[in-house]
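Last lecture ended with a question: if I hand you only a sequence, what can you say about the shape of the protein? Today we answer it with a concrete record. The protein is 5'-deoxynucleotidase. Below, first the input exactly as provided, then the predicted structure, then a couple of comments.
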Amino acid sequence: MRPETLLDFMGVAEHLKCNMRHSRMTDHRRESVAEHTYRLCVFAWLVKEEFPNCDMDKVMKMCLFHDLGEALTGDIPAFVKTDDDRETEGDALTLLTAMLPGKERQELDELFGELEREETMEAKIVHALDKMETLIQHNEADIATWLPLEYDLQMTYGEKECMADPYLTKLREVIRQISEDKITAEGEDRESFYYIRKDIENMHLSEVTDLLRSTEWAEDRTEEMIRKSMENSCPYGLFLKAGTGEGRIKESSMAGKDRQIGFARVLTDGVTTFYLMDFVIEEKYRSQGFGTILMDRIMKENGHLYGMLHTKDAKAFYEKYGFRAIGDTKKTEEIYMEKPCS
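The predicted structure:
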């Protein structure tokens, strides 16, 4: 390989040292992609004797290069990654391997293809270890750095991948138990820093107004219009408690009073049907699990009814709750959705 080519590729790989992941370390700083990759390789080396019939040298190579595309794209946490993001990462890999001579390019292209198909045992091992390394890192980090959705993720993330082998399944169970013990030992209450309230008298009208005016669909509503709409429906509010500490969430509610960061309204007869409207989470608190927390509460109280809503860009989110699009979604910007009663 020409020295210039080698150094160019090394220069791009250096970005993996700079690009940060979501996960926090025991010293509270965020880990880099390179740090995650290093320990994933250590992980693979430690378990190699458990898989005598596998090509563990190939597993090590897959671990070494599995996040190479993030040198260009940066890390995107699994709980917010979309199909478009995965396509972008694939394009980045194509650009990166094109920098290499034919032999090396072919070797990496074949490795990435095998990883993506996830058909061989070697690829399955890498996917399982990759997810478990993330779980291990979260267990090692201060629980105050966990997002609300990570309490559930620590219990479920990587389960499917670890079913590929009994040893991987056993290892996943041990990691899950450590997560459970950590939550218990820390005395953590998932609702210790947030809560949900219903009814207009519990809403913070000025904050609800700010939330709705930040959206495309309600940017022109006056405070009086918003107040009347709440009077004629059932409003739900998601609140952060005053004094929520640094590290618990990206931004803290430190102004001396509880802060409303989420809102939704439900129109219902309480017997047959409900209509969900104005569902919004303050932008800086999105992708942290708060939307799921609010929606879980709404569905707990209304999910047995026939439900309706419309959305522009949250179709996948509502599908998790049983909603399905109505009609041809390609012919209109807004997607109308419904769910059967249960």
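Comments.
1. The longest helix spans residues 166-186.
2. The chain has a mean pLDDT of 90.
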